[in-house]
Design a protein that fits this description.
Helix content is 29%, strand content 21%. It is an alpha/beta fold. Strand 9 and strand 10 form a beta hairpin. The structure holds adenosine-5'-triphosphate (ATP) and magnesium ion. The site of magnesium ion has 4 residues, from helix 1.
């Protein structure tokens, strides 16, 4: 079956001014990312700040043009299309943004905001559109009377529900949610994640769910891809990633996720990575994670590890040192214990 989204070797390099004068440098924001999302599937995309997640999302939405690579939406390569040709496909993919405060037009009522995609794609007449918006509001858990309100008259969580109503108005086959909860109060984060999952199961759209919050990613995703410095370094299904992370980077990320059981939480070791992610202007040679990796060896500086099968084709990781499945990850013997909080 044709995947809803198929990204192949996506590269996005930004040219930026470096220091004084006219000298420029290249930011390798995304450096060869491939991923696919099947119908009705949720792919979680995780990684530290600056790893390139939003840049991938923006290339898929064509908010920015990729440097190279292809993005196929339901089989059509959208990277080669003109703006006009893309407009016809624009219906297939919609996005919910991180900041519900700046992503809704303050001069439009919430009803107008949710109706806008329907008008843009000339779907239905005025009365039918208005009914549809009422239904959408109910679907996202808002009182339809709120259609008359302006975004500033709503709470952050309510605004994000309006953002969801807008994104789902034309029933896209793919929803891109870039950090949809990170700007929200902790108390409403869970309700928005629950809502997203309910809507996804009800409407059956595929979703690229970008988030820092690994607990939320674990909750909604079928599969997860981990990014580091513009590359995907590990990808597998949710259960396997959380049960058996193989890349030392993934292990470190997951070790920071709190578990609900206090006894287990106390016994867990937190893997502390030294330093910060290197600059994507000047990434390390070979394996880009080697400068912080607790098990790096000299060979890691020489060649770049490619994403390869570590447990059949369902589990891929990019590391020179990972052995066959079942072998204990070498990282466990060398971790530093985090000081108790
Ligand atoms: N328009 C731009 N011009 C130059 N550099 C950019 C631009 N957009 C992003 N970058 C750089 O590309 C890299 C990846 O940025 P991106 O926003 O994709 O990261 P991210 O993984 O979404 O981070 P976060 O979790 O903080 O949202 C960063 O180093 C960033 O500074
Ligand atoms: Mg981002």
């Amino acid at each position: 079956m044709t995947p809803v989204l198929e990204v192949t070797d996506l590269v996005k390099h930004f040219r930026v001014r470096s220091g004084l004068g006219d000298s420029t440098a290249v930011v390798r924001a995304v450096d060869g990312v491939s991923l696919r999302i099947d119908r009705g599937e949720v792919l979680g995309l995780v990684g530290e700040s600056g790893s390139g997640k939003s840049t991938v999302a923006k290339c898929i939405m064509r908010l920015i043009e990729p440097t190279s690579g292809t993005v196929r939406l339901n089989g059509t390569d959208i990277t080669g299309l003109s703006r006009r040709q893309f407009r016809a496909l624009r219906r297939e993919v919609h996005m919910v943004f991180q900041d519900p405060y700046s992503s809704l037009n303050p001069r439009m009522t919430c009803g107008q905001i949710a109706e806008e995609p329907l008008r843009h794609h000339r779907i239905g007449r005025r009365v039918a559109r208005s009914e549809r918006v009422g239904d959408l509001f109910e679907k996202v858990g808002l009182n339809p009377q709120m259609r008359a309100r302006y975004p500033h008259e709503l709470s952050g969580g309510q605004r994000q529900r309006v953002g969801l109503a807008r994104a789902l108005a034309v029933e896209p086959s793919l929803l891109i949610a870039d950090e949809p909860i990170s700007a929200l109060d902790v108390s409403v984060q869970a309700s928005i994640v629950n809502l997203l999952l309910e809507l996804q199961q009800d409407m059956g759209f595929s979703c690229l769910f970008v988030a820092h919050d690994l607990a939320a990613v674990e909750f909604v995703s079928d599969r997860i891809a981990v990014m580091y410095l513009g590359k995907i370094v590990e990808t597998t299904d949710r259960q396997r990633l959380f049960a058996e992370p193989r890349m030392p980077y993934t292990q470190a990320l997951l070790s920071a996720v709190p578990v609900p059981d206090p006894v287990e939480q106390r016994q867990r070791e937190r893997i502390l990575l030294p330093g910060e992610m290197p600059s994507p202007i000047n990434p390390p040679s070979g394996c880009s994670f080697r400068t912080r990796c607790p098990i790096a060896e000299p060979q890691c500086a020489e060649a770049e590890p490619l994403l390869a099968e570590v447990d059949g084709d369902a589990h891929l990781a990019a590391c020179h040192l990972i052995g066959p499945a079942g072998e204990a990850p070498k990282i466990r013997s060398t971790v530093e214990r985090a000081p108790p909080p």
